[in-house]
Amino acid sequence: MSGEAGLLLRLAGPLQSWGERSKFNERDTAPFPTRSGVIGLLACTLGRRRGEDIGDLARLSLTVRADRPGVLLRDLHTVGGGLPARLTVTTAEGKKRPAAAATLLSHRYYLADAVFTAALTGPADVLEVCAAALRTPHWPPYLGRRSCPPEGPLLLGEFDDVHRHLVELPLARARKGTAATVPVVFHGDRPLTHLSPADPGADSGSEAVGQVNDQPLNFHPQRRAYQSRSRYQRTLHLPAERCQGLGADHFKALASYLAPYSPRPEGSPA
Predict the structure, then answer these.
(1) What pTM was computed for the model?
(2) How far, in whole angstroms, is CA 48 from its chain's centroid?
(3) Residue-range domain boundaries for the chain
């Protein structure tokens, strides 16, 4: 039986940040791309303004492979200092802070040097529109925050059996040691039974690992709304030879893998 058709995205950059519970001065990041973050990325490439309908995008399903989980980084910001009173940070009561208390500290968390591969599945017409927007985005896409642009290719392609490729695609990590397999964590918004393990004996199985509040209903700045959903996780032990290093080595392996699936220019030799 053939698998689901969908899009493969490469979510990589020096920094990325996928907020889960960010409020006021604490801006956290999840250890993986969230549904709200990826749907926001799609809305950005489509040119959707905050508050516009995202119901079609919310119907897409997301499965994420953690090629390289990255390192948690905390950045300390100061906000509101040295400004006239009318421009300082507004309090919860709607007033302005006095000059002596105008400067606030803000802790912002990022994933440094992380790489994820994401599979999107859902209605064919929605996927087609998203693929076109990812190739020629209306606004520059970003990985959770505007200060986190993606590096390298964002859209890897459209595939008939997208989850098979999600498992088989070269890994953006260096091979270490002599073990025949490496553990790779997958995150999903549904049970991950559609993934085929390379080593069934070492498969952790798909399990629900809690609830996350990242199903977006509205991105309007004054009416942001999210819904809770179950989060699923599964660890597969994949062949160690899929670890194709970092930088140029990985890009070469990626290009070689994708070459048979890339559309050829009209009139070019087969």
Answers:
(1) 0.87
(2) 18
(3) 6-76+111-261
